[in-house]
């Protein structure tokens, strides 16, 4: 679907959804695995402000927004995870296998057999535009279908910053202009780059200062091993269900006594689970399947390009990054796959069925490196291509957008938020990082809407004292000290996230009740907390303990 989404935000975005959530959902497709980029990679390849923001705040928020779930861990699952993490072969990378997290409902007993429920943003977008609980459509949010963005206007001038005033969209043979105050480009690595090119009359140097930074579209290698298997006791198949596990692994390739590569790759296991992972040349089979897939990271490739063809549509030139030790890496990954497979054989007493041109071979109870084939997916196979409009690298210099994702050149009111801003093709499925960056950008563009009102009603028969953890500490946003709500009364706080509300009978009470409260909701207090054994309230005016707010 090609669409143009317009947000006109004045102050708070209403009660419907966190603004960042909208931003994130605008830019996202549906995905399978969600994982963080490793600490080592963020440190080595991303600006430190981005690394810190992701690790301290925004990964957690993105995981909350996406409602990432873990499946149920039964003893046989733990047994396999423990066995995989027990690395006795010193030559192989150490591991921290854990469940791969996905944004969908798990159905016991077949974890990861989740055809119902894979995450798509479209429902949420439609909900935001059409399903307004008050019966009116939100006046600040529009999705315009079938409106591909051609370019932004006015055209940039080298070494000068101007403001974009219009988004030009195509409507059949006609062009229409949408007036705008701020623009977030999120048409994906190729189309966002093409929109910039079309806006600059095909010549990116019209932005000034971006030569060498623009258009280095890059994908990482995805390598995989796939093989069907049988359980010796097929009842185990139901007991174990599907498993998806992930671990970071660090290469430690040594040449002439020196470490020549210690980059971090990602290993995924999909055991008898529905998966988008490449299956090599193994055709669909009624047998359960093991797929081991690796993502090997890559720096942006300077010779790769995005250009416009004569019809003003993007055309790309892509090659893999030079890697002198790619063969050595493949050897490590193959040995690692053999180790994984033999551990699974041990723990679940399975037998792999090697497939050759002659059909199924006798079942294997011990895998050797000659039994497996490491195959390589083509570039772009799971839409991880990125880096065309990058942020700065680890040193903080370079980039076409700054660390707030705002364009550094050409325009002052344009931000970019899709995979094109990644400065490095890390060994991770990229959507979680993109979601986290989108939430951060939303907070940068509209700092206040993340706080939503929480109104607390006192439905008990007496006054109560409320202490809210972590409410916003400004007068504008309401009380931060304990306040009294008289019976039948209410008070409103602005909160950003789930908080604990402590309810006391009065300031002298030592015991209290705790209630969890959420932004954008009403909370009722119906039970009176215990009274103080000795109450001194009458000797101290209550007003001393109360913050008034207007
Ligand atoms: C089969 C498959 C499985 C995947 N599995 C995973 C996974 O498990 N985990 C993970 O992290 N990632 C996964 N991905 C990758 C993930 O979907 C992408 O990395 C992600 O969607 C990229 O986001 P983006 O915002 O950069 O681009 P996109 O998601 O491509 O968003 C760009 C949007 O802009 C629209 N658009 C394009 N041009 C224009 C224009 N001119 N005007 C207006 N709108 C325009 C497009 O229609 C699209 O909606 C998977 C991808 C595929 C294909």
Word description of this protein:
A hairpin with a 5-residue loop joins strand 15 and strand 16 (314-317). Mean pLDDT is 83; it is low at 8-30, 114-118, 473-479 and 541-550. Among the domains are: 75-105 and 218-376; 452-545, Sandwich (Immunoglobulin-like), CATH 2.60.40. It is globular, with a radius of gyration of 27 Å. Strands 2, 8, 9, 12, 13, 17 and 20 form a 7-stranded antiparallel β-sheet that branches. The chain has a 4-stranded antiparallel β-sheet with strand order 25-24-27-28, with no helix packed on it. Strands 4-5-6 form a 3-stranded antiparallel β-sheet. The chain starts with a strand and ends in a 25-residue tail after the last strand. It has 550 residues and is α+β, with helices and mostly antiparallel strands. It has helices spanning 19-27, 39-45, 48-65, 75-85, 121-130, 188-199, 235-240, 326-348, 431-445, and strands at residues 3-7, 98-99, 141-145, 149-153, 166-171, 174-179, 183-185, 221-231, 243-250, 253-255, 258-261, 264-271, 289-296, 298-299, 305-308, 314-317, 350-352, 355-356, 359-360, 375-376, 414-416, 424-425, 452-458, 464-468, 483-485, 490-495, 499-504, 513-517, 522-525. It binds flavin-adenine dinucleotide.
